[in-house]
Amino acid sequence: MTPRILIAEDDRHTRSALQELLESEGYHVAAFGDGLSAADAIKQHAFDLLCLDVMMPIKSGFDLCRQVRQHDQRTPIIFITAKGEQIDKVIGFEIGADDYIAKPFGSHEVIARVKAVLRRCYPESSGTSHDECEVTQHPPFEMSDLRVIPSQMKAVRGEQTYDLTRREILILTMLFDANGDVVSRKDLYHRCWGTDKMPNSRSVDQTVSQLRKAIECDPKQPVIIQTVYGVGYRYPVAPA
Predict the structure, then answer these.
(1) Cα separations (Å) of 117 from 24, 82, 107, 137?
(2) Residue 103: its H or E element
(3) In which band, very low, low, confident or very high, does the pLDDT at 127 lie, cut at 50, 70 and 90?
(4) Helices within the chain (DSSP H only)
(5) Which CATH architecture fits 130-234?
(6) Which of 27, 38, 71, 80 has the most other CB atoms within 10 Å of its CB?
(7) Are strands 183-184 and 146-149 parallel, antiparallel or unpaired?
(8) Which of 65, 78, 81, 69 is nearest to 112 (CA)?
(9) In the record, which positions carry 4-aspartylphosphate (predicted)?
(10) Domain ranges in the chain?
């Protein structure tokens, strides 16, 4: 079952970025701009993870966390805040937080922390899928000057190492194995997000955009992941 995540964040841009990022990873996301609206949603729906900004109007993240913990000790809570004082983290953990993310944050950090918290809090649901086993067993391969190592979930260029998510590794693997042919957005979505979901080209494009920023020397002129407009993406194989 796909985890349901609630975001309570009063900054519109941060809220939108978090929602798009988590949805691109396949999660169901409900986002709210204040603690009171989030509290009402929590009363009406079950969520698998709560991501709460500390400083919000009407009801703060700390207040909302205290309210949730009065009757729910299991649902994990990650605090999101721009404040870096140690005392904030101490208070957060004392009242029941499971982790902390400080703004500004990177997309890979957010995904890694979300997955780690879900794994820790729901170990019975953290089994490795067939696709995940398959992609991590793929032999290392070269894409231009980038060496991709699926078993280590990373790519290397010279002395630079790029930590990648399972989905990013799977996208690169599909493009490499296509041997220069175009891989459609539909095929990417079904393989990387699951066949039980309606194809969403926006999620594919957002993930590819983030992946390009991570691995391309110039994301605006990509040489590893090239767009074939109206169809999908390809890795252009150099002629023999």
Answers:
(1) 18, 20, 16, 25
(2) none
(3) very low
(4) 12-24, 35-44, 61-69, 86-94, 107-121, 130-136, 166-177, 185-192, 201-215
(5) Orthogonal Bundle (1.10)
(6) 38
(7) unpaired
(8) 78
(9) 53
(10) 4-125, 130-234
Give the Cβ contact number of residue 78 at 10 Å: 22
Task: Please tell me whether residue 135 adopts helix, strand or coil conformation.
Answer: helix
Query: How sure is the predictor about 197, in pLDDT bands with cuts at 50, 70 and 90?
Result: low
User: Are 47 and 74 within 8 A, CB to CB?
Assistant: no
**pTM for the model:** 0.62
If residue 228 lies in a helix (H) or strand (E), which one and from where to where? Answer: strand 226-228
In 3D, which of 222, 185, 229 has the Cα closest to residue 207? 185
- 3-state SS, residue 143: strand
Superfamily of domain 4-125, CATH level 4:
Response regulator (3.40.50.2300)
CA-to-CA distance for 233 and 227, rounded, in angstroms? 5
Q: What is the pLDDT of residues 53-90, one digit of tens each?
A: 998 888 999 999 999 999 999 999 999 887 665 667 78
Is residue 229 a contact partner of residue 221, using CB atoms and an 8 Å limit?
Answer: no
What length does the chain have? 240
